Amino acid sequence: MAKLPDGTPLPGRLIVVEGIDGSGKSTQLDLLHKWLTSLDYAVAFSEWNSSPVVRKTTKRGKKKQLLTPVSFCLIHAVDFAHRYQQQIIPALKAGATVLADRYVYTAFSRDAARGVNPQWVRDIYSFAATPTVALYFRVPLEESLRRIMTGRPTLKYYEAGLDLGLSEDPHESYRMFQGRILREYEGMIPEFDLTVVDASLPLVNQQEIVRQAIEPHLEGALKAESNPWRRVLAAEGLSGRYLDSLVQSGG
Amino acid sequence: MSDVKFYGHGLPGEEDLKYNGKLIVLEGPDGIGRSTQIALLREWLEASGYAVYASGFKRSELASRGIEAAKQGHTLGNLTMALFYATDFADRLEREIIPALQAGFIVLTDRYVYSLMARSMVRGVDKTWLQSLLGVALVPDAVLYLRASVESLVPRLLASRGFDYWESGMDYLGYSDYYESYLDHQTRMLMTLDDLAKEYEFQVIDAERSIEVVFGDLCEAIQCLVQDLKPGATPSDC
Predict the structure, then answer these.
(1) What CATH number does the domain located at B22-229 have?
(2) Min Cα–Cα distance to chain B from A178, Å
(3) Is B27 helix (H, G, I), strand (E, B) or coil?
(4) What does the domain layout of chain B look like in residue ranges?
(5) Containing domain of residue A116, as a range?
(6) Residue B234 pLDDT exceeds 70
(7) In terms of DSSP bridges, do strands A2-3 and A9-10 run parallel, antiparallel, or are they unpaired?
């Protein structure tokens, strides 16, 4: 069960993945998502920084380099609050299993790495429900950098932490910024009881660990057959040729 | 130099902030005539030789357009709205208000964190949470609160732009009627602002009187604050 900050249990399950860039958390969450769907669990998914409400503002702030550590923190809090009130909470109240690719811990680590008062950030996000399981994908800094830097991508200004003036070289700045974030994550493991997954293991082994961590919490979780008409097709010997277009258009 | 104080945690890197300017806030409900008074005050202060910077909600380069667009869709939850306005506020504070104060300007701002708090409080947002969120705010040199009864605001509103969806509280009160909703919402806002006025020691100015009388009171209050900005000024009996 997920819980509201005042301790009220919510019928749904909230599964969160966290970790620095290149820790492989999104890959593992995607695999978990497919597994849960195959078991007919009702799953909702929410991704960090994806709310349409602030998309243009965030883009504008980044493009024009208007964002300070404080407004960077707040704009992400707007994104989170909107997704929380519109997606996460309704799904949890309905009893669904909510998968969140990054949660409040991303804000806690990044904003603290930018020098924002850690307690202020925790207060801002104090409305957020406590996850059922928060998986932290721990990876050595050098390993994550190796994964991200393959092909030497162009790092964006805020992504590289260039706003902090740690180094003028984007790659060096990124390395230092990710190092700071990593230290913040490490400190949060005991603070928020994060479940550590060794993200340097082979992907298959990691997924096994992830499923073992989640499975005990699935008993009684809401189910929703994803394609309930399948049984009709099987029983009647139909091919479902007119269903294809419905499925494609989301009907 | 002013003794600079923040309400809460303040801004990172600004712990030793010092400035010469003055931060003057005009608070009060929608339609009370704040922007008219600010326009008059600005001209009056500039005529007396002071440099003035005027600021207000939804004027930040970063967030103003986004808030406008989001409000069109009526999709903002109470926390989302509070945080979006806080973003707008922080952007103006860090990139406009503080630099202007450091350059010695008198900053006149059309509302401040108190209105943000009141609007969120009537919509059920926790006050302690709001106080922490808005703890980045500077404590102003003066808060001048233009106060009037809700009934006296209605004719002014009808004569100008009419009822607005958000200013009437249509997003949370559940009325189908704008007028009923407006009265209920503005009454709640007035009570909340009155409470904040006591807590944060606003100077209350009765705004049911004529524009020139209210202007006179505002000038008097501001005169006392700004005269020490002039070289060779002697402390007065303010």
Answers:
(1) 3.40.50.300
(2) 20
(3) strand
(4) 22-229
(5) 2-248
(6) no
(7) antiparallel
